[in-house]
Amino acid sequence: MSNLQFITHSIIERLDIPVLKNVPIEIFYIAVMFLAATIVVGLFLAPLAGFSTYVERRVAGRMQARIGCNRVGPEGLLQFIVDGIKLILKEDTIPQGADRPLFKLAPYLVILGAFLSFVCVPFGKYLVVANLNVGLLYLIAVSSLVVVGILLAGWASNNKWSLLGAMRSAAQIVSYEIPLALALMVPVLLSGSLSLQDLNMAQSGGMRNWILFKAPPAAFIAFFVYFISALAEVNRTPFDLPEAESELVSGYNTEYSGMRWGLFYLAEYANMFLVGAIATTAFLGGWQPSKSNVLFATGALFFTLLLAIKGLSFFTKLVGEMVRGKSIFDLLSNIRPIKFSKWMFLAIAFISLAGGALLQMFANYWLVTLLMFIAKVYFFVFVIIWIRWTLPRYRVDQMMDLCWKKLVPIGFGCVLWTSVMMLLGGGNG
Amino acid sequence: MEINMGPQHPSTHGVLRFRTFTDGEVIRKAIPEVGYLHRSIEKIGEMVDYNGFMPYTDRVDYVAAMTANHGYARAVEMLLDVEVPKRAHYLRVIADELCRIASHLISVGTFPMDIGAVTPFVHALREREKVNTLIEALCGARLTYNYVRIGGVAFDMPQDYPKQVNLFLDSFEKLMHEFDDLISYNKIFINRLSKLCPISKEDAIAYGLVGPNLRASGLNWDLRKNLPYAVYPELEFELPLGRGEKGVLGDSYDRYIVRIREMRESSKILKQCFKQIPEGPMMGKVPKNIKPKPGEAYAAVEAARGELGYFVVSDGSDKAYRVKIRTGSFAAMSMIEKLSRGLMIADLVAVIASLDVVAPEIDR
Known about the structure:
By secondary structure, chain A is mainly alpha-helical. Chain A contains 16 helices and no strands. In chain A, about 70% of the residues lie in helices and about 0% in strands. In chain A, helix 9 packs antiparallel against helix 11 (about 260-285). Chain B has helices spanning about 40-45, 55-60, 65-80, 85-115, 120-140, 160-185, 185-195, 200-205, 210-215, 225, 250-275, 330-340, 345-355, 360-364; strands at about 1-5, 15-25, 25-35, 150, 150-155, 295-305, 305-315, 320-325. In chain B, helix 4 (about 85-115) packs antiparallel against helix 11 (about 250-275). Helices cover about 50% and strands about 15% of the residues of chain B. In chain B, strands 1-2-3 form a 3-stranded antiparallel sheet. Chain B has a 3-stranded antiparallel sheet with strand order 6-7-8.
């Protein structure tokens, strides 16, 4: 009996309603499955991806000498929720010549590819949905579903620009899967397992056990090969050719609108998070506690505190004004959280440094490992955003050159070097 | 596959249309279709009087409208044979060079954006806003200036204007260094542009390219030096030429870097202008009702996109018999069909950006 069946049975027994006993049990399995999926996607994945869009917009604003979204809620934190509501309410247009069933199916395939990958990402010692023994293979396989969705979207739109974007995307994702898989071979060799949880275990005991520093310099180089290929996999700059705005209007999602379009973006940001999660798990120690976590903890605490203080001041003001009888819609866009002076920034930085050091005392506690993992992943998300707003885009042939003439040989070299080092070092690298 | 690119497309800089015939990603042929922004400006020139046409010249090239003003004013002054006071000449040069900076900022800003980097565009536009504020202080408008008058300029500059401009120029030079660090010497950027669509000197002359596009091909031709007008002979500046430093002579990177360097030269010219500008009136002696003797005149200025010429024919009445405008973008557009053969779609976008075509200038 699987977990799902077990949970379903126990729920039905607890409820103890006689009518339900006549209904076939399979219907309840499906109902519970949908419920669980809704809870996971709605309460966990969508906010994670949504928060990444918020981070992206604020970071982009900073880099472009402007502000970014700061109107809705404290420092614009509620912007992504508002955007989501807007997208759902928008008209869902389907072009006349489009292949309707395929057009509708495409975004679901894309989002499926993105969300299925989360199944085997270890967020902590016990915080993993399924600790598959072929975890990495599964990840690489499932994330390829995205390309099917994108290809469908481009073909079904009946738009030449979309088709070009989809073709580019297919070529790009299929090509870059090779260096990506090669780069991930290095951690697999070093840890001797395809399971992501085992990868984590191989890196326990602090920074010097991180796979990044093993078999020098193979793993270190493999990390960058992985990161570059992953950028191409999720269609981010400098490899955003499938949705190159200045060339292909908007690429494969040109004809999409409303929440269907939103799903493409949700998938993109979920994939960004995934890239960070795999990089962290495979190379940077995953959720395992280490001394270097002080850095990540300080950074995470700093921004959390900033947003928390702003948020608190915002909501206390909001509640205060609402008690006095003003309308909430009027208030949401008019109340401003407090402003910080330079000294307050310094104070918060100091507090977060102290907090980061303090957290080290509870480093093995599951909540702390989870927070550290997410802090590390968001560091990668930040780097991906940083790259996006700095670099121009490659041309198709240059991108293929980079993949086949540079990354693939380097990847093979890394695998070879790792094996040699392991042979010489008696299996330890 | 025949793809329609434009007239509404994110990278065609206005309403341009290309009929592109492609083989997958590779373009076999791209035919520019002009006329989507045609406003009959030349015909309007025959219907309104001489002074009344001045605001319309703003719309010939709204990215650098001062030079378009200046060219028309020069042509009519030649017909009328009026003397323009020295101070007015200096003010015109100041306005022209500010506009050249603003226009080149748009060009070098949208260029990386067409290649996928959005941040340089925003930084360039921020600087352009500062230039616009300076021009606003001069003439009260931010986009269509209508500042130059036949026989002089409309207003004198504010008293602290040299200070304002110098303050901007000092910060601008620092920011140009930042801009270079951000994008000009970026490896991907150079890879994309070097050896892309080189235009030889002979081709450039044959197709009538002008301005920075021509100088990027290595030909030393600038109306400010070769057929000097206004007070340019009294000013010292250099002409940046394409050197093919990252690829071959006359490639897209040369066209980009020439514009970056020209902005620095413009900043040099501005500083000299404020040192040398004499006191005096702003307007020469121009009759209130302009009725030139029958005849014709051609006057051109070096605009941001090269030679911007006005050919004005007078039949002795208060309206011109014919106004013909010669612009650089139109010539550049005619070259795209030749250049586009065998390019990638992504390259076509880059080439259009590198030629710095502005839609209103093509169609008038």
